[in-house]
Amino acid sequence: MKKTVASLKEGYAALRTGRASPSLFDKIRVDYYGEKTPLNQVANISTPEARLIVIQPWDKALIGEIEKAVRSSELSLNPSNDGKVIRIAIPPLTEERRKELAKQAKTQAEQSRVAVRNIRRDGNEELKKLLKDKGLTEDEESKNSEELQKLTDAYVKRIDQVLEEKESEIMEV
User: Per-residue pLDDT tens for 66-109?
Assistant: First the structure.
């Protein structure tokens, strides 16, 4: 269940908000000597201002490849380079785009809730199997089942908190 929440946070990091964040580029891969390599392993990514990202490749020959990878990503960003670094201005989001991103965030949160509930179901099945095989008494099975439900509720609540934080970040002007 912890991994599900962590995965949700990771997925949210890639959702573009109006703010510049190096985590936007976590999923971007660059062709580096024939290998698709994560961008953060071939360049330094920094945010000197709230709406500006600077990518400084360790190998200057990669500037064209990095620029191409950023342009072809689903982030809809327009990089510009001066031969040494790539600068990317993060444009403010339109109201329509904000609503679309909030909808995406809700979808990801619901998928995470379903994953947590599936984990609960698997745990309950395991408890029933142990009860059937005489590995647990009925009282122990009932107690463990209640504990599993409490855990599930806590993690669903945590997912809702993460969603709320992301939605407020997205809708922020």
Answer: 888 888 887 778 888 888 899 988 877 788 888 888 898 999 99
Reading the block at residue 159, the tokens are: 């997912």
| DSSP conformation letters of 78-138 | --EE-SS-EEEE-PPPPHHHHHHHHHHHHHHHHHHHHHHHHHHHHHHHHHHHHHHTTSS-H
Q: 32: pLDDT confidence band, cut at 50, 70 and 90?
A: confident
Which long-range contacts (C-beta less than 8 Å, at least 24 apart) are formed by 113-117?
113/156, 113/159, 115/4, 116/1, 116/4, 116/152, 116/155, 116/156, 116/159, 117/152, 117/156
pTM check: above 0.70? no
